[in-house]
Amino acid sequence: MSDSTSTTAAGPLEEFVYDDAIVRKFMLATMIWGFVGMLVGLIIALQLAWPAANTGISFLSFGRLRPLHTNAAIFAFAGNAIFTAVYYSTQRLCKCRMWSDTLSKLHFWGWQLIIVSAAITLPLGITQGKEYAELEWPIDLAIAVVWLGFFGTNFLMTLVKRRERHMYVALWFYIASLVTVTILHIFNNLWIPVGLVHLFKTGSIPSPELMLKSYPIYAGVQDAFMQWWYGHNAVAFFLTTPFLGLMYYFLPKAADRQVYSYRLSIVHFWSIVFIYIWAGPHHLHYTALPVWATSVGMVFSLMLWMPSWGGMINGLLTLRGAWHKVAADPVLKFFVIGVTFYGMSTFEGPLLSINTVNSLSHYTDWTIAHVHAGTLGWNGFMTFGMIYWLAPRLFQTQLASKKLVAAHFWIGTVGMLLYIIPIYVAGITQGLMWRAFDQNGSLAFPDFVETVSKLMPFYWARVLGGTLYLAGVTIGVYNILLTWKARPKTYEEPVQRAPALVKKFVPGSDEVAEDRLTGTVSAGPILDKFFQGKWHRRWERLPLLFTAWVVIAVVVATLFEAVPMFVIKSNIPTISSVKPYTPLELAGRDIYIAEGCYNCHSQMIRPIFSETKRYGKDADDYSKAGEFVYDHQFQWGSRRIGPDLARAGAKGKQASMWHLRHFNDPRDLRPKSIMPTYPSFLRNDLNFEEIQSRVDAMAMLGVPYGEAVNSAADMARTQAHQVADEILTQFEAGQGWEKEPDIWDKVNGGIPATREEALEALSKKKVIAIIAYLQRLGVDVSKDGGTQ
Amino acid sequence: MSTNQKKSGNSEASHQADKLMVHDYDGIREYDNPIPGWWHAIFLGTALFAVLYLVVFHLSPLGNALGLTAQARYAAAVEKDAASSLAQLGLLTSDEATLMRLSTDDFALSKGSAIFAASCIACHSSNAGGVVGLGPNLTDDYGKNVKTPEDIFNTIAHGIEATAMTAQQQQIGEDNCILAAAYVISLRGTNVAGGKDPEGEPMPQWPAYAPEEE
User: Fold this and answer.
1) Of B4, B12, B164, which is closest to A655 when you measure between CB atoms?
2) How far is A729 from chain B (nearest CA, A)?
3) pLDDT band (50, 70, 90) for residue B11
4) Which terminus of chain B has a smaller tally of CB atoms within 10 A, N or C?
5) How far apart are CA A393 and CA A693, in angstroms?
6) Which of residues 639-698 of A touch B (CB under 8 A)?
7) Do B81 and A619 count as a contact with CB atoms less than 8 A apart?
8) Cα of A782 to nearest chain B Cα, Å
């Protein structure tokens, strides 16, 4: 392998050894977390089909496990897969060992520690309540340190110290992932830790729950904007660009073919980096986000179609002349299916970003199907292809069983289809049911539960499909472990030789644009030289310059949207009747967030006629930007497995006693409901004392709390007594509160002797706070004359 | 095997035209192939569409004028609904005669049952048979707070103080309360299977409603 790209005389050969031990670690972690993450996915799929699987144990309920599933799939499975790819390929593409073995190890163990802490905190309900950004602030800090401090430093320094003059396209994609994820993570996770506020104000140590609690500095519309800027680009720069890097290295390696087009890789790389960032607002069509923003999000999403397909084309056309190998080699089979799913998902993405399509798909399972086509097909299969290619090389032995690889491929493919197809059908079915009118102009399916029960056959099919996909992964884990067991006693560590880069680089003839045009007008030749793209070769030699350009592209694109979003006042017209939540309601809201209610309930009535008809008081009653100014964080949700709750206290208001019984057992009141039971709300006491710090933290964020700043706990107790008294009164109007042994067993350990005792016991419980919160939703805007 | 060789041989030959770049990264090499023309065409097409879209919908009054914006489409839907809806039912008032008239009108009952399914079944069950400890059975001849058709409307519209029966007029408007009341009036005596035991007092017969002869 002579260094033919440089005409510079090579210096003396240096000897070095690749660090494959770290790659082995990341690879095993990928398999193990992949299994865990998908197992949790299977559990929550089962819970939707069979609500008893929620078990009533709070840390196993859907709202808490769903974030665990998504975080595990993205950050644990895909994350470790990315690091496997990066650590293996970067060393070889740079002809040098990773810059620091210590940083490599800190990165590996730090990342696993983050995953473990996620696996502990999310089921405990410790969450920021923003999708894929659920992890609370101490873990956020750890992510920043491990990602940028350990991984980033190590990776960038390896690029700086490399022995290969030019950076291959895979490295460009890794750079883009590294810097963009850092920016996204930091700016979507700016918060005030409530526990620290408590510590400074009272001088006492807060409860662990409060210590880990934070409120984001953004509220409502702006928080939604930041969240989906983050959320969409997490898909882009965590699940797309690193995997394109992976594809660019491992696919030509496995196929032993040349990459189809270098020029295409330049154009599609830069267009992806610049265009993706704009697309986030397409997650917020028809919401209270200003329409200009969603329109910009939509048109940029459409423009993403070809840049994304650039990757697919380069992947599939690289296999020209190697299709006979695909038939024989399961690694290539995985890659082909993976790249194909990438192509389908990146066609579907722009399609779903079109606002009229989105009005049907949004809040339905269509989104879930789309996401799983991407993750199971693209991320999953690219990862498995890579691992099966790597395992024999890293463990320096034969793959334990090729048949099992084929079995994994076929079971996984069938499982994936069996998952995705029914969920597409479920999504479209439910979307159409929501918007259907009968011949008399009434909603054809006014009962929300009916639109969910209809989906049960599809949900069971998904359980089956998910089981198969997981079975495939299990076979994979087994096969890799068998391979690992057959490893040699000590690994060979072949010594590599390459000359160090010399300081002064003289570009070779292929590095400089040719003078192909001559003429009196100079623009022609200049443009011709530009389009020869040789200037990009220079960037490929200068990793820090390259990184700087990526940062500029990402930041500039972000600012184009973010600046107007934060600066233009008219984006959020004030509604004078909207007031802050009371201290008790705020505490209830924090329970709502902790339980992950947003995983199934939206709080956003879109200006779509079937939707105001279902959720609004009248045709003008859709959600307005001004409603959310005190919502640190916004809770608009992205999927309606249950009905929208934006007007839970106004249109669709239920008696507080109804809510108590409903939390105790939803199926007691609605036999076909699939909502989990929440016995812990009835059993557990609310910490009234610490509500003060929650209010204080909100006040620091500019929420006008008035007298509550001094007396939050007392105000909360008074309101809790009122709500509990109201509930008892409502019981008394029926068969009497003493006829509810099931409820009092949980609240009081038995039926209270007196009404006083009942009131005392009930008013202390968490359920009172969350009922108070729900009864407040939509009330302010439903007051007459509120809108300005 | 031979077909494979043939295939690869063919495509190998067609590759002769592709120019291989000089560079080599860990054995990976790249062709200097041009970007496909259709790629450029579609990419430029989406960019043009972007400009056109923003002009039509945001930078000019065209979108609203042509009724294309979400706002315009929503307003049209609201208008269509208002035009097609309740006019045929005549004046909607909550007096006994009107309620009884509506309780035999198919259109009013269809509207009323939809409102019932949206707002009432949480406590009265989908079949109106009632829920233990919450709403009473609405299909029997007993009434808890109800003796006359107007009582039904009042219960729905204003709720019953200190009970789980919440006031609906604020939530869904008077017309919808009237239609729901008409539907509930029509349920009397259907005695659904599995309904709750009667609560309250037996209700007097509904007043007779005789449609006016044409």
Assistant:
1) B164
2) 6
3) very low
4) C
5) 56
6) 650-655, 657-658, 661, 669-670
7) yes
8) 9
How many Cβ atoms sit within 10 Å of the Cβ of residue B50? 18
The pLDDT, as a whole number, for residue A519 is: 64
Query: Which chain A residues contact residue B49 at CB under 8 A?
Result: 299, 302
The shares of helix, strand and coil residues in chain B, as percent rounded to the nearest 5, are 55, 5, 40
For residue A493, give the nearest of A168, A22, A85 by alpha carbon.
A22
Closest-CA residue of B relative to A248 is B28
SS3 state at A285: coil
Residue A239 near residue A171, CB atoms below 8 Å: no
Supply the pTM of this predicted model: 0.94
Instruction: Report ipTM for this prediction.
Output: 0.91
A774 touches chain B (CB under 8 A): no
Give the tens place of pLDDT for each residue, B38-56: 999 999 999 999 999 999 9
Does pLDDT of B25 surpass 60?
yes
Q: Check: CB of residue A614 under 8 Å from CB of residue A434.
A: yes
Q: How buried is residue B213: exposed, middle or buried, by Cβ count under 10 Å (0-12/13-18/19+)? A: exposed
| Token pair of A169 as six digits | 């396209």
Q: Say whether B163 and A733 touch across the interface (CB within 8 A).
A: yes
Q: Closest residue of A to B89, CA-based?
A: A440
More confident residue, A110 or B211: A110
Instruction: Tell me if chain B has a CB within 8 Å of the CB of A494.
Output: no
- Shortest Cα distance, chain B CAs vs residue A37, angstroms: 34
Indicate whether A776 pLDDT > 50: yes
Distance from C-alpha of A134 to C-alpha of A126, rounded to nearest angstrom: 8
**C-alpha angle A577-A581-A584 in degrees, rounded to nearest 5:** 145
Average pLDDT over residues A96-115: 98
Predicted confidence at residue B70, as pLDDT, reads 87
The residue assigned the tokens 């038995």 is: A750
Give residue B10's pLDDT.
44
Q: Residues A464-491, buried b or exposed e (16+ Cβ, 10 A)?
A: ebbbbbbebbbbbbebbebbbeeeeeee
Q: What is the pLDDT of residues A19-56, one digit of tens each?
A: 999 999 999 999 999 999 999 999 999 999 999 999 88
CA distance A315 to chain B (A): 12
Angle at A298 between CA A292 and CA A301, to 5 degrees: 140
Residue A5: pLDDT over 50? no
* A455 CA to centre of own chain: 24
Which residue in this structure is represented by tokens 């219960």?
B155
Reduced DSSP (H G I as helix, E B as strand, rest coil) percent helix, strand, coil of chain A, to 5: 65, 5, 30
CA separation for the pair A199, A559 (Å, rounded): 35
Tell me how far apart the alpha carbons of residues A420 and A422 are, in angstroms, rounded to a whole number. Answer: 6
pLDDT digits (tens, 9 = 90+) for A60-81: 999 999 999 999 999 999 999 9
Write the pLDDT tens digit of every residue in B82-119: 776 777 888 889 999 999 999 999 999 999 999 999 99
Average the pLDDT over A235-251 and give the result: 97
The gap from C-alpha A382 to its chain's centroid, in whole angstroms, comes to 19
Contact A731 B163 (CB under 8 A): no
pLDDT for position A787: 41
CA distance A324 to chain B (A): 6
List the single residue in A442, A508, A661 with the smallest CB-CB distance to B111: A442
**Structural Rg of chain A based on CA atoms:** 28
Chain A, chain B: beta-carbon pairs less than 8 Å apart: 208
As a whole number of angstroms, the distance between CA B184 and CA B163 comes to 19
Contact A128, A216 (CB under 8 A): yes
Q: Is A700 on the interface with B (CB under 8 A)?
A: no
Would the pLDDT of B7 be above 50? no
Q: How far is CA A396 from the centre of its chain?
A: 36
Contact of A436 with chain B, judged by CB distance below 8 Å, is answered with no
pLDDT higher than threshold 50 for residue A105:
yes
